[in-house]
Amino acid sequence: MNRQDENDTHGTDAATGAREGLSHAIDSVPDHDEDLASAADGRPDGPHISWSALFPEHVDLAPAGEAVDGRKLPARGGVYAFIGDDERIVQVMAAESVRRTALARLNQPVADGSSKRADLRAVTRRIAWRPTWSRFETSWVYLSIARRLWPTSYRRRLGFGPAYFATVDLDGRLPRWRVEEYAWNPGRREVGPFARRGHCAAFIETLVDLFDLCRDYAILERVPDGRPCSYFDMGRCPAPCDGSVSLDAYRSMMRASYAFAIGRGEERLSEWEGRMQEAAGQRDFARAQRIKETLARARKSLRRDGPVVPTPDTFRYLVVQRGRGRSTVIPYFVRAGAIDQGAAATIDEVPHIGIQWMEAARRTVDETAADRIEQSGHIWLVTHFLAKGESAPGLFLHVDELPTPDNLAAIVRQKFARASAAGESDATNA
Questions:
Q1: In terms of Cα–Cα distance, which of 308, 360, 296, 366 is closest to 337?
Q2: pLDDT mean for each 10 residues of the chain (430 residues)
Q3: What residue segments make up the domains of the chain, in order of their start?
Q4: Residue 37 forms beta bridges with which residues?
Q5: Helix or strand or coil: residue 10?
Q6: Are 199 and 25 within 8 A, CB to CB?
Q7: Which among 5, 94, 191, 413 could bridge 261 via Cys, Cβ 3.0 to 4.6 Å?
């Protein structure tokens, strides 16, 4: 039995092999085999869309009560839908084996007090599907279909959660860092993505500590009549709330924190190292230890042992995934929040077209008319796979770390030829 027939593709967000960079903080959470999409039950809540516009292939079923001929269904990956008598979509699924999962759902025995799922065979008149060739493609296609069918509720139907962005309104009267799930927020600068909210919040906390930013925004909003909090007494806040420093000076501090966040932070770290040495020289070891811990967090944020993505606009990857057949691969160009699929190619063709792939990945795309919700969702999807580290299917290469064309061809051959040699079928999601 091949791997495709062993694993369904619905489940929850997962990650192993942590890689943390300046703003693409990929964290480690327990891994799962099932990680792509949840079953999307219920009638679509958006404008009516014909199932044939979403699913190019289908098979009609015999009347309820008769056996389903599974041989007509593909034993490969895809996104599929059960279609009812009224030609409307009953349920949508993403799977590594359309045949296995569709038959399993249709053949579930009906029990007393059965759920809606147990009645699927009675209401399903055909199965329609869109074939896919990799786990990444399946997730991407499912995300697109779910957004069109369930624009108000698609998020709860996904098998992965959002990514997070540290955002700041530098041009505001009282700038403030905060955690956001969506990118390209009007009037805000952003750093990210982070795979988990906690890591994004911790990054903001590090910025607050490094730059002595306000920790009680409610007090700051009362400027100039605010009453300084205990951090002022500890020398860790300049008290813009009561006018001890001007708002212009405080906004300059916020701009400095943003500059640090996007990778220009060595000067600030040197300043804090001097403070630590000064505290130690004064035998204020508690203060020196606090500064040391802050520096450790900051340096961890700046560590560049993996792809570093300072802002959503520079979130750019060349993704290579399995195509149809053991010797075929498909490139995907991730540019900010856009994902474009390139033409399939054989592994032997990569030495000749690899340079075109790299040029396409680096190409600037016009984001002015883009849907920021859709684009953010694409970043969530790619971040979900990046969080898997070495266990991520296929190849994810940041544009700043692309190899030479010859080396790219060698990397592709090693990755996908090795998977084929391991006995994976044409439909296996490598």
A1: 366
A2: 35 27 28 45 78 96 82 95 92 94 83 58 93 97 96 92 96 96 95 92 88 91 91 84 93 90 74 82 83 76 49 94 94 96 97 96 79 95 94 94 94 83 46
A3: 3-157, 164-302, 312-421
A4: 158
A5: coil
A6: yes
A7: 191
